[in-house]
Structure formats: C-alpha cells, structure tokens
Please model this.
Amino acid sequence: MATGIKDKVVLLGMGLTEFGERWNMSSDDLMVEAFTEALADAGIEKSAIEAAWLGAALDDVNIGNSAIPLATALRLQNIPVTRVENMCATGTEALRGAVYAVAAGAVDVALALGVEKLKDTGFGGLPIKTKGLANDLWMPYGSAPGTFAQLAGAYRARHGISYEDLKRGMAHVSWKSHQNGALAPKAHLRKPVDMDTILNAPMIADPLGLYDCCGVSDGAACAIVTTPEKARALGKALEDLVAVKAMQICTSHGWENAYGEWDGASVRNTQIAARRAYDEAGIRNQKADIGVAEVHDCFSITELVTMEDLGLSDAGRGAYDFLDGVYDRDGAIPAQVDGGLKCFGHPVGASGLRMAYEVYAQLTDRAGQRQLRDVNFGLTHNLGGQPSNSVSSVSIFGRL
Amino acid sequence: MSANSVKTASGYLPLLRFDRSVARKELRWSGLGGSGKGRRAVAGWDEDALTMAVEAARLAIGEATPEGVTFASTSSPFVDRSMAGLVAEALHLPPALATQDTGGSRRAATSALIRALSGTGTELVAAGEKRRATAGTTQIMAFGDGAGAVSVGPGAGIATCLATVTINADLLDIVTTTERGTPYESEARFVRDEAVSEVYVPGITAALDKAGLTGADIALAVVPEPVGGTYRAVAKLTGLTAPNLCEEIAAAAGDLGAAMPIFGLALALDRAKPGERVLVAGFGNGCDILVFEVTGAGDRSATDALGQGAVLSSLSRFLNLAGALVLDWGPRAEVNQKVSASTLLRHGRDMHGFVGGRDAGGNVQFPKTPVPVRPDATGPEAYEDVVLRDVPGRVASITADRLNFTPDPPFYFGLVQFENGARVTMEHCDVEGPTPEVGESVRMRFRIKAMDRQRQFRTYFWKAAPLTRPSLTEEG
Model:
C-alpha cells in the first residue's frame, strides 16, 4: 500500500536568481545562477547529482523543447534529464519528479530546476498560446487576467458580496504583497503601493485592475533533494533539514467547464489537492498548523479564493479575512511573505520552486527581514491554466 | 403565377447603428461628411455576409429542412469556398443538399428567388452583405450591413408570386473590381436618369402587365434606389402610389445591397394585409421585378431588426469596424491563428452547427469527446447530436478582458450554462452596455471566431449575446 511522500525526502540545497527584467541574462545564465547557489547550499559536487528535472512552461520564448537545454547549460554529464510542463504548476512538477525519484530509491540525489525567460517576448503579459488546433476552433483566446477575472463575478453571485467590498478585499491582497516584496532583495517589484493607487488603477479585466495582476518576469529557481539519511551522511544537522511532507496535484477532467455543477466561485482542484496534502502531511488543523503560505497569487482574486479553497478562510469570508490582516506578514497565517507572484515575480516554470525556496528560507531561519517566528509547516500552491480548467498543486514542507 | 410560394421571409441587422450626423460633423472640414441624415447598420468585427445571412436564415427556416440552399452576396468573404455550404452546416442541415453561391450583382438574391419560385422544390435563399467602402465616399455612409432570407416551397405560403421580369442593362452606378475591392461611383444624375428610364420603368411596367395589375394596385413597394429620388421618378411614370420601404430601410439602416430586397420583402410581409400586392425589385446592372400577392403574415423579424439596436456615435470606431481605418494594435495582436484544413474538416460540422452530444447517461456536452465528461462514464460512448444554437443559456461567469487583443475592445468571454445541462466557455458579442451579470440570459449568434490576418482566413463559431436588444425608439 502506498505510504505517501512524507519525510522521505529533504531539501538539501536551494538556489534562486533575482526575478525581474533580466535583460542582460539568458536562460542559460539564469539556470547557472540558480544552480550555483543551490549546489553551494547543498555542499556537494555536481557529479553527485544522479538525475534532473527541468521545468519550463513557455518553450516558444524560452529554451525550446526537451531537457537538453538544462543538461547543456549545467553540463550535466551522462545522467537522465527530463523536461516537464504543466502550466503554472511546472516548477512544482519539476520538484515532484526529483522528489519521487529519490523517494522511490531510484537515485540518492536529484535536481529540480525551473526557468522562464518571459521578457524576451517583446510585449507585456504572457504570450498568447494556441490551445490546440481543434480547440482553437471554439475556445476563446482569453488573456490570463481575463480567465481569472471570471472568478470574481461568480464569487459575488455565490456569496452575495458587493462589488466594492470584493474590490477592497482584493486590493488588500495586493497591498500586502507589495509591503512584503519591498523586503525581498531578489523580488521583481520592491515598491510599496497604497490602497488608493491599487483601487484606482486602470482596468485590465473587470474587476481586475493593474495592481490586481502579477507581472511577468525572468528568473530561475533550483532545488537539490536527497534522503534524510544521505543528508545526514553529508554532514547536515538534523535541525537544518527541511522535509517534504506532502506533494499533491489535481487536474481538471472537464467537470468544471463541461458538466454543469461548478458555480465558478472556487477551484475544486485546489480543494482536492489541499485535502490530500493535509492528509499526507498529517495536518489536522491547517489554520493553526500552517505557519507560512506561498500561494498562486497570479491575480488578487485568485489568492482570495485560494485561501478559501485551502481551508484557511471559511467560504465567503476570504475578502474580510484579508481586510482583517489574517494574511499580512504579522497576521495569523502570513502569506506571500516574499511578495508572491505579484511582487517577487512570475517566471512560470520557476514559480513553484521559488515558493519552496521561501518556505525553505523561513524554516531554516534564513529569511532576513522577512523572517517569521515559530514556523513549523509551510505550504506552497500553484494554479495552472484557468479556474474552469486547471492544474492545482499543494505542497507542504516542514522540519523532520 | 409561380409554382412555389413564399413560406417565410426574415430580416437581420447587426446591433450597431452609426449616426450619420457624426460623420457630417467630424468631416465638415473636408466636405466629405455626406448628408448627415439617418443611420446605417454596422456589423461587428466578427460579422460578415455569411454570419448575417445565417442569422436571417435561422429565423426563416425554423425547423424545416429545405432541399436547397442559396447564398447570395456581393461581399462574400471567400471567392472559392461555398458559403451556402456553411449556411447549411450552421443550420445543421444534412450534407446531401443542393447548395449554390450567387453574386456578381446586387440582383443576386432576387434572381435566385425568381429561380426558386419557378421550381417545385423547397429552397432557402439567404442573402447577406457587408460591403467595404473607403472613408469619405458616398457609399460608406449609404451602405448598411444586414441580411435577409426567404424560404419557398410548394403549396400555400404567406405570399404568392404573380409575375417576375428581369431587365439587363450594364448601368454602372457603382462598380467594384476584385483588384480595387471598394466601389467606384458614376455621376449621380446620370445614374438616376438611366435607372429610371432604362431599368426600372421597363421592368416594372412589364411586371405589372404580366400580373394584370396597375401601379395603383400595389400596396407596398420594395425598390432599392441607387440614388435618392429614383423611386419618386419611377412612381410617376409607372403609376405606383405605394410607399417604398427601401427609403425607410436606407434611412434607418442603409442600403443592404443584395440583401435589400429580401429584407424589404420580409418587412413588407410584416405590414401588408392578406390580399394586398407587394412589388419587390432587385437593382444592379438591370433589375429583377417580382410582384406578390400576400396570403399570410410576416415573422416581424425585419420590423424588430429596424426598431432595435444601439447607436454608435464614434466615427473612428465606425471606420474601424467598417475596415476603413488601419490601426496598429501592436505585438499582442500578432497571434498566429493558422487553421488546419484537416482539423476543420474533422470538426467543422459540429463547430459550425454548434452540435454537442447527449451521452448514454443523458448528459449533454460540447464538444463531443471519446469518453464523456459525465463522472461515472467508464469508456467511450456514442452520442445523440444536440444542437445548442437555440437552447436558452445564462451567464455562469464573464469578464471584459482589456488585455487580450480584439479588433473592438473589450473582449468579453466566459462560461455559459445551457438549460439542457451543457456548459461551454465561449466569447460574448453585442455587449454595448455594462458587462452582463452572472445569471443573465443569453442567446447564441453565429460569428467569426478568429481571423488569421496573416493568411486572410477566418473561422466561424457561435457566441453568446444578450437575450434582447434595446429599442432604438426609446433611445431616440
């Protein structure tokens, strides 16, 4: 019988580039920068890595197909290297591949690296991708803000919250992330923004204004994972080890957008992945146990709804919890402490690993000005695609 | 008297009406603003001659399956692709069907109607026009976008054709070459004089004689005017005393080209009483004249189309929609939308007809997939076709997207819940007011889905539109 992933794998080392408009850095440069930090943190030689996973979501503006660009950039010699892509959950998928390989006993040390070079598109926002030749005949070409803005109207209809209250709750989501991003040296956006500016920003996709949307960034993030035993053998102290407690992914199969029961006000994949992750990690009271959350705040409404889907806010209370400061850095469940996608940035393939990096930093007391107290468990969450057709990942990390 | 009779006749106009006084004011400096009187119907960026013809045709056809479909237009979006075939697919008609595309003259629809009336089978004639013209011309203000459709067949209908006459005359009031793409006009006085003396008077006189009627016997006339005042002169010479509905249509919606006489026929049948006679003309390098005796009532679609809409008061938006203004939309508009012909052949019929499927468990979904979306489905199932175009729907989620490129921002899209259980993420169209709310009712419209601007190709699908249109009377 399957026993899950809990405590079978630890983060041996992690690396993260500065996110942002890295005009002078290629994808290769970004990969090398993140990997160099991770390798030093892990305290191993490159030759100790036995397998690698690359997360890269947008191949047309990044590095093209296959995992060869990673093997080439890092000169990983004669080991299996695999590229994964699962929209905004891509970085987490890369980590999951490496973690599963170690947990399975196939290798002792594995690498996961996510990279995205979005600023080479030549325009703002994500590239517009085909949805497949047959789907293009009928599916709308909605932008990312447009697809997530759908949550807002459905949420208001379900919970009876006014447009104005929801806008204020969403504005607080972004306000909080800008406050936090200012304390993250590697973040893309490091400037606090006041509530009025957020509320009065130009509309992007009703009701999402400019500050309700994360930007797009260049960046890379990297993790080297191994077993607890191997980590100890490499000289790591037990108290320094951050273990993977749970990694769950749930993927749409058409129920939301084609079957007719979904009301559009929540993301069922997140709810399912969260429930499984809490079970896998042995968490019984997530509101009390989760000490830091890095969720997929691609848009303010996404973060707001996600907190309900994760069971951190009660249904219909998300906006009010944000306004009450529950998710502020000094709140009960600090979220997006590094600024999140909103301010740290969102190089798609790297984002899941960036979230793990922040949780790792918090659990190992290396978060600098952002350091929180008494964090036992950290949660990361990605939401790829769109609420009606999504990939959702929930991962939990904690000390051994 | 023709063998076939008119069974139904319908009219369709796009939502927007450009107020011509705006052009007169804005272009006063140039002297190219036109008379500034009335309004013209303006197709959305995602409408063309085909989509509007489909909208008229779906009204006219009801549940019937004709033996033939004719598409008539001088502005067909394709030169060598059967639009009649796409009309048939959009209406989910069987593939074994006589289809014909006709153009080459604004008489295309009336000529097709004459042939259909002289036959013995059931036929649908659908005409649509979205004619391009350059900014500053008389035509860009005079033209209107719209469509009409008429179904004919044996037995009693709503109108019986008493006589038809065709006059050929190579009178070039306007002429559009494939190379130029937009019309070039002749002097108005020459056109009016010759249209009267060489085209209309001989045609109408002969038709009235053939029907055994005098001009005074005609209750309503549908006589397209190449130049204002043409009908007045014709009426004097032929004894016609009836009002010309084309003057009303031209003032409210513009000259609908090949669709004008069909739209006019639909409007006339809304207004005429049984026993009254209606004269319908097609004009263009001669004329077609048809004289009808009314035996039933119209479906009021043309009346509704004239009375409903939204006023467009921006000259630049109008010119953009009319294709007379080139805007550079920047890199975000550079989306490669190349269509695969094999994919289109495989899926096109279900896309154009908006055909979903009912699975073995009774659930309706779109599109059909090998394994149904129903959670307890365990493997591939056969589906019963379910056409969604007329199924009531409501908004389940929606937004006005201002980041995504569209030629007429914003881009509305979201999830639509159909009454039969199907749900489809789709684009919205014809939204002029605030963003529709969750729960609002919508209806389906056949529209251009995507424009491959690199290869000048377009695909078609259905979009959700508000259930009703505002009244132009109330709007003033």
User: Anything to note?
Assistant: Residues 5-321 of chain B form a domain with the Peroxisomal Thiolase; Chain A, domain 1 fold (CATH 3.40.47.10). Chain B is about 25% helix and 25% strand. The longest helix of chain B spans residues 188-211. The radius of gyration of chain B is 22 Å.
